[in-house]
Amino acid sequence: MSGASGAQVFWWVILPYVALGVFVVGHVWRWRYDQFGWTSLSTQLQERRLLKWGSPVFHYGTFAAIAGHVMGILIPEAWTRAIGIPEGAYRWFSAAAGTVAALLVIGGVVVLAARRLLVPRVRATTSAVDYVTLILLLIVILTGIVPTIGVNLFGPGYDYRTTVAPWFRGLFSGQPDVTAIAGAPIIYQVHATAAWLIWALWPFSRLVHAWSYPLWYLWRPYIVYRSRQAVQPAEPGTGGRRWRKIGVHY
Q1: What's the predicted TM-score (pTM) here?
Q2: Is 233 domain-assigned?
Q3: What is the tally of helices (H) and strands (E) in the chain?
Q4: Exposure of 199 by Cβ count < 10 A (0-12 exposed, 13-18 middle, 19+ buried)?
């Protein structure tokens, strides 16, 4: 961190570590004191049509974007070069796949945001934390789409694996490269800052439902369903349906 100013150290070292601490401690607190609130607080009963389309598109796009971040930030450039992937091919594939993921995410979030803002019954269930989370998500999405499409796909390109990636990996090894991230374009800096704010807000929002994976479904016993045909119950006696006196047993 030599050569970094105090503001840069605060922004790119202290803030990320504080966000990570709030992320971990907040989840522990939420699980201990608010397990009944550990849910997405689904609004499916208030509106289904838009949710049916917006939610899957947003989630599939988010999974693709997360996978792209793992490949681009956590995997060093030397590793991909060592297994024979040329840098040009990697950048082209990353930009193309990132564009597809970005279009899915923006399409899904537009539907979900419009649904939450324009449907009165859904809007009535929206809290202040939901609005803050939505705004931060929009900032992260837009600042991720612009460099992916405008710079890396159709523009001259920017190798974030030499600036943003070393700084991010350094946070987990205790040696963040502050000067590297401080020299990155401002849109990458805004993207990273908004992402850390989401991490800090995560335990106190609906986003906690992301950790509620039904993994036990993978090893639960099979449930056998057998069809039954409705059959008219037989009348007492052997003569089929017939009149009988009340209280008389056959």
Answers
A1: 0.76
A2: no
A3: 10, 0
A4: buried
Domain extent for 136 = 6-218
Q: Does residue 237 lie within any of the structural domains?
A: no
- Please write the tens of the pLDDT for every residue from 54-77: 889 998 988 888 888 887 787 777
Query: Which CATH number covers residue 65?
Result: 1.20.950.20
- With respect to residue 140, please indicate whether it lies within any of the assigned structural domains: yes
Q: What is the mean pLDDT of each run of 10 residues along the chain (250 residues)?
A: 77 93 94 84 83 89 86 78 76 79 88 89 87 90 84 75 86 87 89 93 89 74 72 58 57
CA 234 to chain centre: 57
Q: How many domains, the chain?
A: 1
Length of the chain in residues, anyone? 250
Residue 224 resides in a domain: no
pLDDT for 16: 94
